[in-house]
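Fig. S4 source data, part A: sequence.
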Amino acid sequence: MVEAGPATFEHPEVEGRGRAELEELQDRRLRSLGARLSADPSWVAHFATFGMKPEQLSRETLSRVGTLEKTALRERYPFPFLTVPMDDVARFCATSGTTGLPVMFGYTFKDVRELIPYQMARLLNAAGVRRGERVYQGYGYGLWVGGVVMDWGLAGYGCTNFGIGPGRADAVVQWLRDHEYTVCTMSPLWLMTLVNTAKAQGIDPKRDWKLRLGLFGGQSVSAAFRDELEAEMPDGFIAQNIYGSTESAGPNHGISCPWSHDSDQMHLINEDTILTEILNPVTLEPVAPGETGEIVFTTLSRQASPVVRWRTRDLVRLADDPYGCGCGRRSLPLIGRIIGRSDDMLKVRGSMVFPSQIEDCIASMDATVNEAWQIYIDREDRILEEIVIAVERKNDAAQHADNIRDALERTIRARLGIRVKVEVHPEGTLPRYEAKAVRVLVRK
């Protein structure tokens, strides 16, 4: 249970607004965005496919705008919808997960110096990061968006950043002790790997590390896994969920706060610069509070590479009371953790199954290693007669592997209504991931 004190807003002129006021601001920025896009031939052509002009863009007309899909990016490889001259671009990051070569999304110098620090300062403050803290930055670098944008955000916010990225576990577990980092940003699976590496070296994370707060993204994990991770850390440590993408411009879109942590929810924290819709993935109609939908967003203020109604394929549950968080951010709605992707769904004997549901079942068992599991399927189209779940048995587990197998098969059948085969492997057998975990593999 996280105890939260009085909330402080980084941008009270936005975070303290009512929802109606915020929507008026969004409308003004949509109209400004439309005027900007009307000067770009690729955007004019895109809007023409659904009978509109960019200058018609507003909150009232937004639902008429066709959603933006990966195919539109691939068709405009390598710099889709750049909208600014190349000499205005300070940096590129690349999309992940597309077939073929990734496409590049740019940042102007103004994006780097003003927009990203503005967005990230609000996010860091909402999560509970304090200025001047020592931060182990463990997201990846290169063309991946996570590490570089977090660096820009931490610099603008005034933290001392140790931008190590993932890897070098043997050194990092000692630096966590010797450098006395109090905040970390990384994949939750990577931190659990560090915990196990530290213990192998005789370092006790609970006693020897000073971490009090972590910002975790890259993949969604169950609440049970988050609780297990917090239990390994120094007393009072809080694991906050963070959400973003290359198309939104980084890990800048969602964050849990001390008030939403226990309910496993995140604020859409930058709604003044990233307008978000939660839509039924089939009908593309808005979902009601308490319902599950797909995140679709429009970047209102990004100069280079803006997107309009980008389909993330990420599925979330809109909170029962989206504007009722105890922190007082009444205009920044709450969503649950990412359930899965609409294109990651498996159909097993007619039942829809998401990898996150399998993870919840695995995490409910004390004898399994929560960060190490796979789903094996035998065909690409994901319409299946059978799936195989591979898990690891903890070395110190009292249960025999056969008992773990039988118990997990029963749990999955009871919760999800499907029969699966479970393979139980020794601890350390299955892959570990420093960033995004690949959970579903085709095995013929």
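Fig. S4 source data, part B ends here. The chain has a mean pLDDT of 92.
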